[in-house]
Amino acid sequence: MTTHTVELELLPDPDEPGRPPAVLRGTFLYCTRRPFEVTLVLLEGCHPKPRWTFARDLLLDGVRQPAGEGEVRVRLTRRSGRTARVELILVSGGWCSVFSLGLIDLVQFLIPTMDLVPPGEEMRVLDLDDGLARLLNR
Asked: Which range of residues forms the domain containing residue 83?
């Protein structure tokens, strides 16, 4: 398992110009038992702590080009005077939250995940027999 805690900016609603982003901490989690997934857990503000689980490939693709459809989208942004950032757009029901984090922070999380399980090798480490046994024993 690998984890990486980052600083996230929760961007304000576009209908509220001039409002600064809220700064939160979040932790990305990656476990080789679920090699296709990453989880983001917000560490502040709510109990229980909000969690989103989505495809690692979405982040890997999103650091190069816009990626994702539906509930989770990722895009690289470059604004004047700032280092490159990545926006995670999370949609659920009737709401949409946009989180921004430094590209370097995200890459510092992704590199160890690729060391553990290189992209394209996920099926090699996935234990389908264990997953099937857990499913049938429920």
From this structure: 2-136
